[in-house]
Amino acid sequence: MPYALKCTLSGLLLLFAADACAQLPGLATCTRSATLLACVDPEGNAYSVATAGNTTYMRGFEQRGKRYWAQTTSRYGQLTFFTGLASDGEAWVGYSRRVGWTTLNRFSSSGGASARFTCSRLTGC
């Protein structure tokens, strides 16, 4: 292959790679302490996660929908339950149950969304 063609192809590959990297979303900037994690991403979305024993409290703000939300997650052995509420009135509930290397998941929301799915450490969800 002629040298000029190699250089041209290499240059095009670099342009495509640079373009692909430019399209990756920016990473969130986070601050943490022993029990609290607070993050903000470049689009203006924000969330915080606090833990207390077997309970996790999450709060956030979605820039696109301009809505605030909060979710509480509690773990009891192999069962994890969660409930959430958003500022637009949407509420959701769900659970995850671990059985060996498999996790059984189910959730539903007042907005009409619901799902039941299984995840495996070997094959994913």
Describe, in plain words, how this protein is organized in 3D.
The protein has one domain (3-120). It has one helix and nine strands. It has one helix at residues 3-23, and strands at residues 29-32, 36-40, 46-52, 55-62, 67-76, 79-86, 91-99, 102-109, 114-120. Strands 1-2-3-4-5-6-7-8-9 form a nine-stranded antiparallel β-sheet, with no helix packed on it.
Keywords:
125 residues; alpha+beta
| Share in β-strands | over 45%
| Overall pLDDT confidence | 84
Structural class: alpha+beta
User: How many beta-strand segments?
Assistant: 9
Biggest β-sheet description: 9 strands, antiparallel
- What does the radius of gyration come to? 21 Å
Global outline: globular
Q: Note the total helix count.
A: 1
User: What is the count of distinct domains?
Assistant: 1
Unreliable stretches covering 5 or more consecutive residues: 1-24
Helical residue percent?
10-25%
The succession of helices and strands, N to C, reads HEEEEEEEEE
Span between termini: 45 Å
Strands of the widest sheet, in order across it, are 1-2-3-4-5-6-7-8-9
Keywords: Signal
Organism: Pseudomonas kielensis
Signal peptide: 1-22
Protein name: Glutamine synthetase
